[in-house]
Amino acid sequence: MTGQGPRFQPDLLTEMFRNPLDPGYADAAERRASGPPKPAWRLAGARGLRLVVLVAIGLLLAVAYRHVVAGEPESARAHAGLVDEARGAQERTDELQAQADALRQEVAALRAQALGAGSGELRALREQEAATGLAKVVGDGVIVTVSDAPAQVDPTTGKQVTPEGGRVLDVDLQDVANGLWAAGAEAVAVNGQRLTATSTIRTAGGAILVDFRPVTSPYQVTAIGPENMLDSFLKGPSGAQLRGLKAKYGIQFSTSQRDDLTLPAAGTDVPLRYARPDVSPSPTPTGGGR
Predict the structure, then answer these.
(1) How far apart, in whole angstroms, are the C-alpha atoms of residue 161 and residue 79?
(2) Is-cis flag, bond preceding 218, omega within 30?
(3) Euclidean distance between the first and final Cα of the chain, in Å?
(4) To bridge 10 with a disulfide, which of 14, 31, 84, 89 should be the other Cys (CB 3.0-4.6 Å)?
(5) CA 177 to CA 89: how far, in whole Å?
(6) Is 63 exposed, middle or buried (0-12, 13-18, 19+ CB in 10 A)?
(7) Number of Cβ atoms within 10 Å of the Cβ of 261
(8) What is the pLDDT of residues 187-229, one digit of tens each?
């Protein structure tokens, strides 16, 4: 049809792109151009004010930088002091543990001398000690190695970080140890720490403790047991759990069968507990009569 206006009127968005500048800005620019020039003192005052503001901001930044730089050596010294203190405590603990092991061996030698080297009582005692973790054992077994997921580069900081969920937890080591026990293990150790009936595997902060001694990745769970122990472990729920952790979080694990493994004795003596019958008198029953 001729003689008619456009069929579609421009919408608000099209009008904004066509005239992006508000007319008020153009009117203000015209007034400034047509008005008298600003006095020199006013221009000088504006420049001076900007200069004062820039100087004040620079001073604030300089003071903040000096405080940060001054505090960094102090925090570094505090961190280094804590590290040295922790290392010293660990060294003292290792020395005490070595003394305890030497005394334990001396007691075992005196006991063997008292009971007789080939006596049946001594053989039975040594078997009980090996079963409870109080004596070292030697035999064929398996090693299950579990380690954190490979570190990745943080795009923000550029540092190597372990991905979320990729760190081995205490419950993972508990599951591995329980799976080996269920597969027929006779003795189990985690990074050289022998497990007993009262052993604990737990987390303290970011570290995993086995009987209150820290262990780090990679974690080696060593077990002595029957020949088919590794197959039973991998086919059981613990093996399936490890495969799931590797597929979902990237946690690495490997298994190997070894001959002539040596598992040390437990680091601490296992407290002996005895069951005793309850000798307290039972309450006299009260019967109601009619």
Answers:
(1) 21
(2) yes
(3) 115
(4) 14
(5) 28
(6) exposed
(7) 18
(8) 999 999 999 888 899 998 888 999 888 899 899 999 999 999 9
Could you give the CA distance from residue 206 to residue 214 in angstroms, rounded to a whole number? Answer: 10
For residue 205, the 8-state DSSP code is T
List, edge to edge, every strand of the sheet that includes 137-147: 193-194, 187-190, 219-224, 137-147, 252-263
Q: In 3D, which of 215, 119, 233 has the Cα closest to residue 168?
A: 215
Alpha helices (H) in the chain, listed in sequence order: 12-18, 23-34, 40-115, 120-132, 170-182, 229-235, 237-249
Domain count for the chain: 2
Q: Cα Rg for the chain, rounded, in angstroms?
A: 38
Identify the CA nearest to 62 among candidates 54, 72, 74, 73. 54
Contacts of 200 (CB under 8 A, 6+ apart): 209, 210, 211, 212
Q: Taking Cα atoms as reference points, which of 123, 159, 104 lies closest to residue 270?
A: 104
- Given 63, 80, 115, the domain boundary residue is 115
Which residue segment(s) compose the domain that 111 sits in?
42-115
pTM for this structure?
0.61
19 in a structural domain: no
Beta-bridged to residue 203, according to DSSP, are 208
Are residues 154 and 258 part of one domain? yes
The string of pLDDT tens digits covering residues 101-143 is: 788 778 878 877 777 777 777 778 777 877 788 888 999 999 9
